[in-house]
Amino acid sequence: MQPYFSFTNKKNIRAYFTYLICFILFRPACRLHSFALHILFVLYYSDQLHPVDGFSAGLVDEKNIFEWNVTIIGPPDTLYEGGFFNAIMSFPQNYPNSPPTVRFTSDMWHPNVYSDGRVCISILHPPGDDPSGYELASERWTPVHTVESIMLSIISMLSGPNDESPANVEAAKEWREKRDEFKKKVSRCVRKSQEML
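Structure for E2 ubiquitin-conjugating enzyme, as requested:
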């Protein structure tokens, strides 16, 4: 059985030394938000060493661990199948106490995605009670969520939209009342995402 992390694998060695170099480069900023930096380094390099099916992640800028490029692969047997949807995941300075934001940079037609691309799902909402009363506090952000759990929630969102509290009212209305029109718009988004590869 292969060990979880082995220094016999060149990729592991390279990732570990990259982590150390980045940590040294970011050390002056560590006084302000060292816990967030440490957590994000661990999450980022864990994802690089042990990728999860359905998405990939990389840094927008190698000098900024707080912004990640993510690509979400459209889940099989859904309207989004075959798509490669790019997004930016931005982490706050007080991560993991506050949730990151996720904004699609690829065109996305979905009831739970605002027209500017921002994703609207419960686990990305700040902890505590929901002022509008739609969500339970237990459904909202907690520091135990990881990049993987966020991405899996977004993949799940693509598989089954929540049209009861939509971010994009027009998309939700189409989803409920004009499913064929909705499918056509999603198909255009999928094709466009494939062309952008």
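The chain has one domain: 52-195.
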